[in-house]
Amino acid sequence: MSDILIINGPNLNLLGTREPEVYGTESLADIEIKLNEIATSAKISLTFLQSNAEHEIIDAIQSAKKNGVKFIIINPGPLTHTSIALRDTFLSTQVPFIEVHISNIFKREEFRKKSFLSDISHGLIAGLGSSGYEYALLEAMRNIKS
To answer: Disulfide: which of 50, 97, 101, 140 matches 126 by Cβ 3.0-4.6 Å?
Structure first.
């Protein structure tokens, strides 16, 4: 059982090569290494999932509840703006989560400014690059240790 599940949605497997002017040059593997270093030093266990399939992400959130995951950090990618199913899954499971976006979704196209998750999340971090994952991890660790 992991303490924290970190989920990355569609297209985040392309980090490092996809639109580096928007998303930076770090790969998802680079981000995961940094997060594992932080978690290991705090004796927190992490599990990572990246999927381009909405149903796999929903299955992972439902399983997280059953498996005692204490917190989820999610970058839902484009599902942020389209997935009521993802919202319903979080509402159904009640696993606390933080929504992370590498870019500032509020400075981008109009359709990116609406999130179906932000109002039910523990918090939202957007526009701080890959550091947003680190801040989310620190907040999640603080919450599960208190």
So the answer is: 101
